[in-house]
Write a structure and sequence with these properties.
Blueprint lengths: L10 H10 L3 E3 L11 E3 L1 H20 L4 E4 L7 H7 L1 H4 L1 E6 L6 E3 L19 E4 L2 E4 L9 E4 L4 H5 L2 H8 L5 E10 L14 E11 L4 H18 L7 E5 L11 E9 L2 E12 L1 H10 L5 E3 L4 E3 L2 E8 H12 E6 L2 E6 L10 E5 L4 H14 L5 E3 L5 H11 L3 E5 L1 H6 L1 E6 L5 E5 L3 H9 L12 E2 L3
The site of adenosine-5'-triphosphate has 16 residues, from strand 10, strand 13, strand 16 and helix 9.
Length: 453
């Protein structure tokens, strides 16, 4: 039989694995799906919560200069007029004269339809905000938009936060939430969707300090990915040339990731200057000035904004962690997730379903479950269960065998090295906590042993 060779990741493999293992499904799948919309399954939602949690902890909870918010998706339409979205949040659209498919002009390499080769219409601007109506009457005065970003909710609350949080500049407001963009073309799995989640923050600074803070945040944000295990060679900052900057930005650097479809934007960091607060001050008639009581001066702060799609981050974490490895005559597929983002931290696997063994294993499971996301699995052979946990990216498996009933010990198997140790059941919880925090597998608790197969 020809030897199986480990392959490289491509999007088809990833989409199929994510579906098979309960990470991500196409939305409304039984009706043929809805383009640009995805559903997170039981494993995917754990991954998503962990990614959001890791961000929230590092941006909000571990800093003194940041507060969080959760603002509404629907806002007064005047917000989107003042922000420039009603006039500017558009993409150039072209339509094929033959098959009538529509394309985003920016994405086309040649001036013909990528589907049938037909001629294209002239470009026209297409606003990508979703429109709906508030209340029972569908009239112009009732138009509201589904927010395409969460930033505006934070700008319009600037004075509320200054007067209630006791934060002094420099400080930031952070938020995570659903956002909607009626993208002309979607694709590359969860990279470009029509409904997605953003996590972003607005960092308010004194006007002449903006460049310094901008550089600081580019560095900080790059380090966040590295700390969570993304490989350095797969991340690259891209500085936008001046002529390509958005209307509100003085400078903008994207953190790009080497996705299977090529290097693309993962996170955008923009120096938005005082544009947003000035616009809202002019349109609402409310002051957006800040009083610096130390220097006794009034000014409108500048804003540095790092903005990141949760789903794009998840796609980067999935791609980066994926590996196919030779394992005896087989190929082992594994997600090497950092323990902080791994959807399931520990799996408890009884070697058999025999009653006394199952009862023992269930007890172990119940002592671990309150401490970390734990899964109990007693189906199929132990080898297949290890493979399944590898495909879920579970860092540690705890195996209970008949010997455990006699010596009160359990085996811990490490996902990445596939090495095993045997430890007293009473020490399991603390040992696993230490390993999940980064301790070497072979640092043993009292009574522990290195397992020799
Ligand atoms: P792109 O150029 O890829 O359309 P953008 O520059 O319009 O992105 P921003 O407006 O800066 O994106 O949005 C902030 C972040 O939100 C992006 O860095 C990206 O991670 C995420 N994002 C934007 N659009 C989408 C989308 N359609 N699907 C998923 N994530 C998105």
């Amino acid at each position: 039989m020809p030897e199986k060779k480990p392959g490289k990741l491509n999007m088809e493999k990833l989409v199929s694995l994510c579906q098979r293992r309960g990470f991500i499904f196409p939305s409304s799948d039984i009706y043929g799906g809805l383009s640009g919309c995805w559903d997170y399954g039981p494993v995917g939602i754990e991954l998503k919560r962990n990614v959001k949690e890791a961000w929230w902890r590092s941006i909000v909870q571990e800093r003194d200069d940041m507060v969080g918010m959760d603002t509404s998706i629907l806002m007064n339409s005047k917000v989107w007029e003042a922000s420039g979205h009603v006039t500017n949040f558009s993409d150039p659209l072209v339509e094929c004269k033959e098959c009538h498919l529509r394309w985003k002009a920016d994405d086309l390499k040649e001036n013909k339809c990528p589907s049938c080769g037909g001629a294209l219409t002239e470009e026209r601007m297409f606003n990508t905000m979703f429109k709906t109506f508030i209340g029972p009457v569908e009239e112009d005065a009732a138009v509201v938009y589904l927010r395409p970003e969460t930033a505006q909710g934070m700008f319009v609350n600037f004075q509320n936060i200054v007067s209630t949080s006791r934060k002094r500049i420099p400080f930031g407001i952070a938020q995570q939430g659903r956002s909607f963009r009626n993208e002309i073309t979607t694709g590359n799995f969860i990279f470009r969707s029509r409904e997605f989640e953003i996590m972003e923050f607005e960092y308010f600074v004194k006007p002449d300090t903006d460049a310094k803070w901008f550089d600081y945040w580019v560095e900080e944000r790059l380090n966040w990915y590295l700390k969570l295990g993304i490989k350095k060679e797969n991340l690259k900052p891209y500085e936008h040339p001046e002529e390509k900057l958005a209307h509100y930005a003085r400078s903008c650097t994207d953190i790009t990731y080497n996705y299977p479809h090529g290097w693309s934007e993962l996170e955008g960091i923009a120096n938005r200057t005082d544009f947003d607060l000035k616009q809202h001050a002019a349109a609402s008639g409310k002051s957006m000035e800040y009083f610096d009581d130390e220097n006794k001066e009034h000014y409108i702060p500048y804003i540095v904004e790092p903005s990141l799609g949760v789903d794009r981050a998840i796609l980067a974490f999935l791609c980066d962690a994926y590996e196919e490895e030779p394992d005896k005559d087989e190929i082992r597929v594994v997600f090497h997730f950092h323990p902080d983002i791994a959807p399931i931290k520990v799996a408890v696997l009884p070697l058999s379903r025999k009653e006394n063994l199952a009862a023992f294993a269930k007890d172990v499971y119940k002592t671990l479950r309150p401490c970390f996301t734990t899964q109990y699995d007693d189906t199929q052979s132990i080898g297949r269960r290890y493979r399944r946990q590898d495909e879920l990216g579970t860092p540690y498996c705890v195996t209970i065998d008949f010997q455990s009933l006699e010596d009160n010990m359990a085996t811990i198997r490490e996902r990445d090295s596939m090495k095993q140790i045997r430890v007293p059941v009473a020490a399991l919880k603390d040992t696993l906590l230490a390993k999940l925090a980064g301790e070497d597998l072979f640092v043993l608790p009292e009574g522990g042993q290195i397992w020799k197969e």
